## 1
Amino acid sequence: MKTSIQIDNIRFYAYHGVMEQEQIVGNHFTVSILLEADVVKATATDELDETISYADVCDVVKEEMEIPSKLLEHVAGRIYRRLRSTFPKITALEVKVYKLNPPGCGEAERAGVILRD
């Protein structure tokens, strides 16, 4: 059995961006995480220590989103590396970081970065 944990569109208000205005005023962002890990035992035992707590994953993402960066690539990279180091059970990982209503894009809904292995 292959197992994954998915957390979609965690919403944040943060201060990421190249333009000075973005660093002062901030913007809305979303982060989505898809991770693969062998958590099959949790399907039988109902024990939290047999899986990766999505609440703990969200805490890591929140902490990294609170650190201002110019580039979404940098934010996504920090989240990716931190999740990998915090949860050694992860065998594959995808991190999506999107800036909503990005400046300079006209009427774009979002702009983002996806890191995956």
Note: The radius of gyration is 16 Å.
## 2
Amino acid sequence: MRKIVHIDMDAFYASVEQRDAPELRGKPVVVAWRGGRSVVCAASYEARRFGIRSAMPALRAARLCPDAVFVPPDFTRYRAVSRQVREIMLTHTDLVEPLSLDEAYLDVTENKTGLPTATRVAKAIRDRIREELHLTASAGIAPNKFLAKIASDWRKPDGQFVIQPQEVDAFLLPLPVGRLPGVGKVMGEKLAGMGVETVAHLREIEQPLLEQRFGRYGLRLYQLARGIDDGAVSPERLTMSVSAEDTFAEDVLLGELAPMIRRLAEKTWAAAGKQERIGRTVVLKLKTSDFRILTRSHTPPVPPASCEELTRIALSLVDRVGQGAEVRYRLVGVGLSNFHEADDPQLQPELFEPENG
């Protein structure tokens, strides 16, 4: 039986800002760029009381809380703090799998410090984060990654929650099915059409029917409803790409996509900022009304250095779509791929142009 811990930093970006600027403490802090198309990267718990959430348009956040303090994100600083958190985790186990700058899985079935339980390990990590970095983290402890991630959200902020193996059904069955990974709005509506609103309802559906309706993800749903997740904690897990996409209620023409592309580029830039590695290739994804998928990409000499640059490249890719003006689209997405370490020489600009001849 594995002992898995999921550590999740509390309102990470906003908490770093409040830690480093005492005048922000106790105030509703929103980490976001100013601008009509900007989205929220993070919100302090004071701001969340007004209903402000990550990925929300910044203009809406300002309307919800006119007194909110907007701070532009500083991903270089957040990455540095994330590395300090990782060093604390690695004193307990080498099996640390980062998901982003602010969260990670740890397999502490065996741990370096000889602590008798995973609960004690999680508490020790959280205590050091508080004492050394002056930040707080929440933790979930469970027999697998899926359950540990759900559990870490149970006692936020600055808490931890344990799901013992014998308690899995009692914890899992009453949950809304939307708490399962991969069940977003569209999938939730499909399941609701089958009479599925809770995990208990989902467990009543046989595996063949789920696979018939949802393909490979149907098998995943069948397993999650039973608390099954065999995925191992993988310390070598590397980010390959990040993206954001949107499906429209009604199909749109290519010339109408610019506002959506700008908004999705903002979301993608915020998601990319959570990664320790840096993406270099900008990708535009489109799905036509007849379900054909088109992708266009561009790899600049150096990675996009700002959200504005990412947006500019994504918009320029529209000119390379090469479809008729009458073609309509049901989905658009913006992504970053081709990730490298931040100090990779490939990411550095050339100091001199090569001589001709």
Note: The first strand starts at residue 4 and ends at 9.
